[in-house]
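Residues determine shape. We examine one folded chain.
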Amino acid sequence: QGHLVESGGGLVQPGGSLRLSCEASGFVFKDYHMSWYRQTPNSKEREFVAVVTSPGGYTRYADEVTGRFNISRDNLRSTAYLQMNNLSTEDTAVYYCRAVTTGGSSNYWGQGTQVTVSS
């Protein structure tokens, strides 16, 4: 059974940076595309933030974070990362990591990590 554990969240001032990590276990990491999603208190759904594919390492971002966030992965460490720069209060949310195979036949979610941007 696959397992994802996010870390790196916390409180940061507007304009600051954070790096989230997502450590995977229990499945073949390189066979999964890795994504980050987020959910705000007022939202019923998680919104897509970024994805990095495997193989290939291709990336795609939500318009709201393009140019500020960077997603990456380390297949040797079975870990995905989300570098978040120039954070604003609107980035405050619980951030979730997701692992999914092409076609969605296998899918795992982490438990989430809270990011709060506030002065």
Observations:
- The mean pLDDT is 96.
